[in-house]
User: Which sequence fits this backbone?
């Protein structure tokens, strides 16, 4: 036990003697001047306070171009002209430069939007772009906002993309600084297909049956059979409507609507340019007698109209009677026109003639 104690003591003595042989080197810490801003981009007429550290130091401030900016002995920079310069802070043999870029302020005066009125189909989206006025403005407020007056009708995100939610009218608002712009947004359940379908006194208007509205089942049409008996929806699809497959549009050019059943219907949005009474003639075909009725803005305005057996599915005949029932009194503006199949027959189209 004693030998072990002696060995430890000697070892500690040896280490102590070694440590006495080393000298510690003193490393001087590198010094520099630090400024609270590394660079500046300011408008002519603006000023900014610069601060150097360490705070207990004594500093000299200067500018390399007094035509661009001046600086006080306390580091207050005043921009006086357009251009670039360096603000120099020094102490003894140390110095630091802060680069400054000065431009003439061009304030934002106004903005323009790509659209101020908008009609959207329920469920669709539309992006709105903003253009600054003047287009070379360099003083644009950082904070802007998009909002909707009625989020049940339409919403908008921070990029200006509007999403149509349900039928109705609302305003989408864009704000930046003191400037405010509004977009009138109408959301509809259907939109005219290959429209507008304008009714005027100048000449009769022929509306193809295959040109019923875009909007899908329950909105633009009702088809009792979800399948397509022709296996062909090229006409609608090729013209931008992918939601009307159940309706049997025959012929690549949309010659007629076929394979119809009682209770099915087609909806059309028409625009009446000249108000008044319009006679409606219906072009249809079928081997057996059938019937239909017409609705305007959701109201049955004709009652049941009987149709004759025309001699075959391709033997089209114009139904023009009874004339009093097939005469529609229409006010100026947009209306919905619904053709309701009370019996099955092929439908080619309609002719609207101002009386």
Assistant:
């Amino acid at each position: 036990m004693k030998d072990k104690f002696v060995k430890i003591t000697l070892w500690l003595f040896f280490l102590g003697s070694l440590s006495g042989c080393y000298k510690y080197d003193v490393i001087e810490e590198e010094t520099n001047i630090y400024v609270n801003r590394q660079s500046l981009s300011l408008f002519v007429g603006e000023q900014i306070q610069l601060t150097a550290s360490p705070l207990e130091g004594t500093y000299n401030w200067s500018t390399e171009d007094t035509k661009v900016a001046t600086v006080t002995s306390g580091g207050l920079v005043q921009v006086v002209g357009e251009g670039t310069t360096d603000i120099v802070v020094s102490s003894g043999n140390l110095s630091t430069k802060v680069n400054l870029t000065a431009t003439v302020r061009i304030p934002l005066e106004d903005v323009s939007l790509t659209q101020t009125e908008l009609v959207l189909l329920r469920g669709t989206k539309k992006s709105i772009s903003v253009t600054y006025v003047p287009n070379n403005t360099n003083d644009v407020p950082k904070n802007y906002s998009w909002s909707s007056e009625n989020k049940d009708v339409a919403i908008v995100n921070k990029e200006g993309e509007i999403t149509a939610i349900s039928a109705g009218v609302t305003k989408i608002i864009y704000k930046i600084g003191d400037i405010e712009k509004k977009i009138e947004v109408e959301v509809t359940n259907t939109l005219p297909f290959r429209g507008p379908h304008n009714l005027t006194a100048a000449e009769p208007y022929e509306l193809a049956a295959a040109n019923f509205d875009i909007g899908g089942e329950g909105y633009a049409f009702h088809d009792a059979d979800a399948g397509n008996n022709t296996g062909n929806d090229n006409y609608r699809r090729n013209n931008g409507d992918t939601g009307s497959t159940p309706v049997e549009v025959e012929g690549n050019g949309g010659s007629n609507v076929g394979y119809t059943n009682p209770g099915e219907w087609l909806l059309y949005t028409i625009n009446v340019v000249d108000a008044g009474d319009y006679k409606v003639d219906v072009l249809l075909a079928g081997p057996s007698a059938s019937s239909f009725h017409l609705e305007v803005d959701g109201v049955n305005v004709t009652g049941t109209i009987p149709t004759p057996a025309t001699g075959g599915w391709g033997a089209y005949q114009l139904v023009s009677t009874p004339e009093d029932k097939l005469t529609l009194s229409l006010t100026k503006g947009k209306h919905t026109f619904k053709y309701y199949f009370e019996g099955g027959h092929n439908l080619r189209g309609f002719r609207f003639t101002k009386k």
